[in-house]
């Protein structure tokens, strides 16, 4: 007899209910027909002719595994899971056994039903697999989002199913900001419950599958969320992984740009060039709170190129900038203290020979090791060096640019990947990151509230669009204080055109933070060595974008405080706020900045664009007109001086946001 269902608050981590769920039907067992279990919010169907799972809500499929969904690999050979051979139901737990292609090997699958989700664990009996793989039919759930950054930095599909994404090194040690969390337009979500490296493929080769492969050393464990909106799925995920307890970034760092020398100077990092760049920025009224040198003081020739860093720090201070330095755990063989690190055992070890350091080829072709933060002596050595830079050289803060562990290496005895993230984030938290933030994976250390910069992108409109999509992907897996790296792009490409640089700055003005490098006063083309100048209009438009962001800063700061209360992302896709507007699920070039501001900047060539406005009453900040949605504004005029933005008049913060944005519009 069903019993009364316990009340579990939505949006929090649901506890396993000790009694059967209200309305739950007994499961039918055996291969004769499908197994169906129902809860008040969804139905789960288990196919028995070949093991498969289908989630149904309100009579509609909202998530389904693919044909031949469950498979495993032993050595070089793949095997499929076949028909169900039996099932039992004990309260909220359903256990299923199934045959496989491999004689004598069976699968045990356990499903634990919860109020707004269910847990799935499956493993082999009779053999040990190298990997276990589960495949979902992407189309069964509508559009897919989440994951984080694509390992291919030149493209970022949004939604994920609109392109192809293959990440064979998806891991807590990834350089990409990622998390094993995906969510869909049908308001389902999937979280892989592992800290081991994964192989993740979304629509690989256009096959329409989401393939999630984990090591076979442990059961393949995941949680499927079943909710009413994607935002509720996101909140379920945040309830598990945590939200920021504070913002590590100050109000000033949100309000004004951080300038980094990388795309401006590349290989020409020296004291003279940095100072000339800073003077040009200040002279053009292109202010900011800090200027970071993208170079490490441990470089063998650093003293030759920067003979008086304290003097440079003082001069930058007179120009209005704090001095920042690049730092990382990467220790190239050309570093001045490479031998010291080797001799003292400060680097991660080679997994095949613990007596040797683990060396690998870095992006620049150099043999490189990684400082072992789980080694207390190595961690102290690295920390002492940073403190010396701050106290002796006038360095006010650091850009931490590294993963804290590398899966090619062996961990310190007894240490886990999670330990490395903990050590790294605690270390970084001792220093001012100047708004450059930290790149960590698996939603690690979010309580510290670091800013998160997405990875470098090309200096093209395609790079700008990929940067926007990457921000949305990262922001909606639990990293709400997000920025693009860098305004105008980098990756060793030729400098951005006037249009790309201007449009990128305008787009960044409507994001939580502005992270800049290429100066609109001019830049050296790293591919040719030629100087590339921009005209006065470029300078004025860039300066206007900075002013827009600074005026909007009080509203953005309000959103930061809201995120600290709720965990909700600041920069988010339209469907988070307007889940009933079907068109919002495929909009790739607009976003909400908090509840009141819809940003629709121009992200490609031309002087017009279409703008979709969801349900609501919107005021156009360009001309003050009021528009009622849902509606698509066809051919909206976007000359280079116009950055389309609209304010939801009924949203919290609308007045503050409109006053900031309308002032900018009035000055054009």
Overview of this structure, please?
The protein is an alpha+beta fold and 668 residues long. The chain is 24% helix and 30% strand. The protein has 14 helices and 36 strands. The protein has a 16-stranded antiparallel sheet that branches. Helix 11 packs parallel to helix 12. The longest helix is centred in the last third of the chain and has 31 residues, at 536-566. The protein is globular. The chain starts with 34 loop residues before the first strand and ends with a helix. Mean pLDDT is 93; it is low at 1-31.
Oligomeric form: single chain
Segments where pLDDT lies below 50 for 5+ residues? 1-31
Mean pLDDT: 93
What is the overall number of helices? 14
Query: What general form does the structure show?
Result: globular
Through-space gap between termini: 70 Å
β-sheet strand percentage? 25-35%
Question: Largest sheet at a glance?
Answer: 16 strands, antiparallel
Q: Which structural class should the secondary elements be placed in?
A: alpha+beta
Count of DSSP strands: 36
Helix percentage: 10-25%
Compute the CA-based radius of gyration: 26 Å
How would you sum up this structure in a few lines?
The protein is α+β, with helices and mostly antiparallel strands and 668 residues long.
What are the main properties of this structure?
single chain; 668 residues; alpha+beta; 16-stranded antiparallel sheet; 6-stranded antiparallel sheet; 36 strands; globular; disordered N terminus
């Amino acid at each position: 007899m069903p019993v009364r269902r316990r009340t579990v608050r939505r949006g929090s981590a649901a506890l396993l209910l000790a009694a059967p769920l209200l309305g739950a039907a007994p499961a039918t067992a055996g291969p004769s027909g499908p197994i169906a279990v129902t809860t008040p919010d969804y139905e789960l169907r288990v196919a028995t002719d070949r093991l498969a799972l289908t989630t149904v809500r309100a009579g509609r499929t909202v998530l389904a595994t693919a044909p031949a969904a469950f498979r495993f690999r032993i050595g070089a050979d793949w095997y499929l899971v076949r028909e169900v051979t039996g099932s039992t139901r004990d309260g909220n737990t359903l256990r299923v056994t199934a045959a496989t292609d491999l004689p004598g090997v069976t699968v045990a699958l356990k499903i634990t039903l919860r109020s707004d989700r269910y847990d799935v664990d499956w493993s082999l009996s009779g053999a040990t697999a190298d990997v276990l793989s589960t495949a979902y039919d992407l189309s069964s759930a509508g559009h897919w989002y989440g994951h984080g950054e694509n390992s291919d930095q030149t493209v970022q599909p949004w939604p994920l199913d609109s392109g192809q994404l293959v990440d064979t090194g998806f891991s807590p040690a990834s350089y990409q900001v990622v998390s094993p969390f995906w969510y869909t337009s049908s308001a389902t979500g999937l979280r892989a419950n592992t800290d081991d490296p994964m192989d993740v493929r979304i629509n690989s080769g256009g096959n329409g599958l989401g393939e999630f492969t984990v090591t076979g050393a442990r059961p393949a464990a995941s949680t499927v969320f079943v909710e009413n909106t994607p935002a509720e799925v996101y909140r379920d995920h945040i309830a598990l992984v945590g939200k920021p307890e504070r913002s590590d970034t100050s109000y000033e760092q949100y309000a004004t740009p951080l300038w980094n020398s990388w795309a401006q100077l590349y290989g020409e990092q020296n004291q003279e060039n940095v100072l000339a760049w800073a003077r040009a920025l200040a002279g053009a009224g292109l202010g900011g709170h800090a200027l970071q040198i993208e170079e490490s003081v441990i470089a063998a020739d650093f003293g030759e190129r920067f003979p008086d860093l304290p003097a440079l720090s003082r001069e930058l201070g007179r120009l209005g900038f704090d001095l920042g330095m690049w730092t990382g755990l990467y220790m190239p063989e050309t570093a001045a203290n490479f031998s010291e690190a080797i001799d003292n055992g400060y680097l991660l070890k080679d997994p095949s020979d613990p007596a040797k350091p683990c060396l690998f080829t870095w992006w620049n072709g150099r043999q490189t090791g990684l400082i072992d933060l789980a080694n207390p002596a190595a961690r102290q050595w690295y920390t002492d060096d940073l403190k010396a830079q701050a106290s002796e050289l006038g360095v006010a803060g650091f850009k931490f640019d590294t993963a804290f562990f590398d899966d090619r290496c062996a961990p310190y005895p007894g240490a886990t990947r999670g330990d490395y993230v903990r050590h790294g984030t605690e270390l970084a938290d001792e220093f001012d990151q100047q708004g450059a933030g930290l790149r960590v994976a698996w939603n690690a250390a979010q309580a510290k509230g670091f800013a998160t910069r997405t990875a470098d992108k090309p200096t093209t409109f395609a790079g700008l669009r990929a940067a926007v999509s990457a921000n949305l992907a990262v922001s909606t897996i639990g990293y709400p204080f997000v920025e693009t790296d860098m305004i105008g792009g980098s990756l060793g490409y030729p400098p951005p055109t006037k249009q790309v640089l201007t449009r990128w700055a305008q787009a960044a003005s409507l994001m939580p933070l502005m992270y800049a490098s290429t100066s609109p006063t001019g830049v050296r083309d790293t591919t040719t060595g030629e100087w590339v100048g921009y005209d006065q209009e470029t300078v004025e438009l860039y300066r206007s974008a900075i002013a827009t962001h600074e005026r909007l800063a009080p509203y953005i700061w309000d959103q930061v405080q809201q995120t600290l209360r709720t965990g909700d992302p600041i920069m988010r896709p339209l469907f988070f706020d307007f889940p009933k507007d079907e068109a919002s699920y495929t909009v790739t070039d607009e976003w909400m900045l908090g509840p009141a501001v819809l940003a629709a900047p121009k992200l490609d060539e031309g002087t017009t664009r279409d703008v979709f406005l969801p349900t609501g009453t919107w005021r156009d900040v360009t001309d003050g007109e009021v528009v009622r949605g849902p509606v698509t504004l066809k051919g909206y005029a976007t000359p280079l001086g116009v950055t389309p933005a609209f304010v939801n008049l009924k949203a919290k913060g609308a007045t503050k946001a409109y006053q900031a944005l309308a002032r900018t519009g009035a000055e054009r």
